[in-house]
């Protein structure tokens, strides 16, 4: 069937869909190296990856405390859930629970009010079930022409529960007004991008050079910056911004209790905890990271 679809797209000169089909057909052809950083055998390599990510996600220690005061701000309604469901993307990999976005999108309308009740209870009580906060990391090679047996040539792809993504979309709408950052930040913002930042930089250089003035630049390359965010400082910043306590509390619980497993080939590692970094693949993660760095802006 896919071959027929490719043929139709080629015949109709629809190059975009043709190459999309080619990509889908060749996506399953992957080479898994037999040796990674000196470790050989699937089980040994899997444990190597587990220890690798344990070091990364536990390199910044912090004692996290969030007040457990009662706060019923932001009761989640059926409308909130319905709007969030409409923003879920199709054809995405499932998390450990095997539930896809299509399961939620095409479920009975009776499901929506039940989800609203559950999500509201999560907020009020500051609790999330283990199945929603479990994440599976899949190391994916960055440069196929590089060393495929080196951990530094891989980036982790996070597979999370679709219900956790749905909940995060709702939380995003509730938290956005409190975490707005300065106009000097261009990354992870709607209708903005690094190209605009580059343009502003070039214009500034041109201005000062036209005045025969020297221009001094300093570039900071923060290695694994996403992974080294201090949780305690992050939630202190959220509290300082006036984010409702129930939102800070549920995020603090999420970060403190989340478990991570690594998948290599067909095997999955034992779970481990994370004490630093924003959640891998989290919908809120870019927003929280921007907030964390906002004080660096002039």
UniProtKB/TrEMBL annotation:
Protein name per UniProt? Reverse transcriptase domain-containing protein
So where does this one cross the membrane?
none
Under Pfam families, the record lists: RVT_1 (PF00078)
Q: Which PANTHER family match?
A: REVERSE TRANSCRIPTASES
SUPFAM superfamilies in UniProt: DNA/RNA polymerases
Query: In this protein, which residues make up the domain named Reverse transcriptase?
Result: 121-298
Source organism: Oryzias latipes (Japanese rice fish)
């Amino acid at each position: 069937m896919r071959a027929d679809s490719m043929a139709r797209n080629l015949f109709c000169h629809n190059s975009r869909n043709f190459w999309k089909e080619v990509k889908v057909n060749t996506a399953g052809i992957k080479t898994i190296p037999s040796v990674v950083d000196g470790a050989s055998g699937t089980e040994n390599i899997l444990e190597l990856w587990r220890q690798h990510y344990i070091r990364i996600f536990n390199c910044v220690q912090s004692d996290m405390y969030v007040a457990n005061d009662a706060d019923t701000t932001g009761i989640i309604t059926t409308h909130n859930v319905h709007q969030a469901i409409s923003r879920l993307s199709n054809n995405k990999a499932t998390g450990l629970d095997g539930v896809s976005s299509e399961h939620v999108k095409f479920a009975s309308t009776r499901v929506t009010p039940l989800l609203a009740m559950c999500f509201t209870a999560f907020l009020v009580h500051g609790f999330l079930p283990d199945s929603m906060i479990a994440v599976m990391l899949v190391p994916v090679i960055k440069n196929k022409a590089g060393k495929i047996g080196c951990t530094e040539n891989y980036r982790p792809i996070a597979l999370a529960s679709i219900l956790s993504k749905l909940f995060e979309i709702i939380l995003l709408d509730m938290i956005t007004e409190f975490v707005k950052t300065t106009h000097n930040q261009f990354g992870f913002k709607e209708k903005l991008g690094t190209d605009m930042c580059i343009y502003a930089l070039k214009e500034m250089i041109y201005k000062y050079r036209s005045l025969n003035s020297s221009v001094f630049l300093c570039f900071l390359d923060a290695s694994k910056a996403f992974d080294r965010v201090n949780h305690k400082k992050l939630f202190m910043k959220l509290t300082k911004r006036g984010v409702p306590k129930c939102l800070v509390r549920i995020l603090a619980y999420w970060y403190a209790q989340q478990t991570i497993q690594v998948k290599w080939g067909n095997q999955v590692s034992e779970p481990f905890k994370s004490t630093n970094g924003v959640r891998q693949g989290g919908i809120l993660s870019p927003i929280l990271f921007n907030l964390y760095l906002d004080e660096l802006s002039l």
